[in-house]
Amino acid sequence: MLMRIAASLAASLASGLALLGRYGTQGFALSIFLGLALPQFSAAARPLLPVTIFCFTTIVFMRADIGIITGLLRAPGKLILTCLWLVAAPVVVVGGAFLIVGRDAIDPGLLLGLAILAAAPPIMSSPAVAIIYGFEPSLIIAAVIITTIASPVVAPMLVELLAGSAVPLDRWALTLRLLLFVGGGMTAAAVIRWWLGVARIRAMKANLDGFGVLMYFTFAIAAMDGVTQAAIAAPHRVAGFLTCAFAVSVIGLVVSYLALHFLRRSERFMVGYGAGLRNMGMIVAALGAGVPPSTFLFFALAQFPIYLMPWLLRGLAGRIHREEAAADGA
Prior knowledge:
By secondary structure, the chain is mainly alpha-helical. Mean pLDDT is 83; it is low at 5-11. It is globular. Helix content is 83%, strand content 0%.
C-alpha cells in the first residue's frame, strides 16, 4: 500500500515538473514577479540561495554532453575565442563605464555589484534557453561549462581588478568557496550520471527543465529579499540600479551579435545572451554574509533581465531560427 502511494506521488511529481518544463520562458518571467509578490517569504528563503546555485551547477554538469565538448575541442579555435569573449566582453563594458564615470562617483555597493556581474561566468540557464528557442546548443553549452570551471580562479581576480581598493575583498577566501561550489557540483553530477546513466538523464529532459524552473522560482523569492521595501523607500535608486543591469545585458547582446561574425547568427545571439546575463548568484552565494546591502540590492535587481529576457527575446530568437532553418534547407 505504502509503495503504491509513494509511486503515485513520484509519478505526480514527475508529471508536474514536466508540465513546468514545457512552459520554460513563461515560468522564468512569472517567477520573478511571484518573488516580488511574496516578500514575507524572501528573508526566510535567502539562506536557500547557495542550495539553488549548487543545484543549477549540478544540473548543468549532469546534462553536459561530453561527446559534444570533445568534438569542439578537436577544432578548438571557435570555442577558445567564444570563451575568451564571454570572459572579456563584460569586463570591458563595465570597466569602460568605470573609466568614463569614475569609480569615486559610483556607490561602493553598486561598484562591487557591477564588478561581480562582469566577473561572473555566463548564466547557467543559457543552454536551456538555447534549447527552448530551438537553437543548436553545443557551443554555448561547452562555453558555459568551461568558463564556469575556470570561474573559481578567474572571477575573484576580475572582481578585485574592477572593484579596486574601494571595496575590500578577500580574494583567496572567495576562490576557495567558488572551488567548493563548482567542484561539489561537478562531483554530484558525476555521481548522478553514473547512477542514472546518460540515456535516462536525456529521457528526463522535461522533468529536469521543470526542476530548473522550480529552482528559479525558489531563487527568485530568495533574491527579492528587501527589494519591495527598497522600491518604496528609494525608488530612484532602485530605478538606477535596474537601468544599469538592463544596460549591461543589452550592450553585451548587441555588441556580441555585431562583432562575432565567425559564428552563426544563432550562436552569436546566444553568446551575446551569455555575455550580458551573468551568474552573479554564484559569487554572491560564495561571499555569504559579506555582501553589502546595496550590492545585494543590485544583485536582486539584476535578476530582472535574467528572468525576463527569455520571454522578451523570444520573437527575435524565433525569427533567427526560422531564417537559419530556411537558409540551411535551401
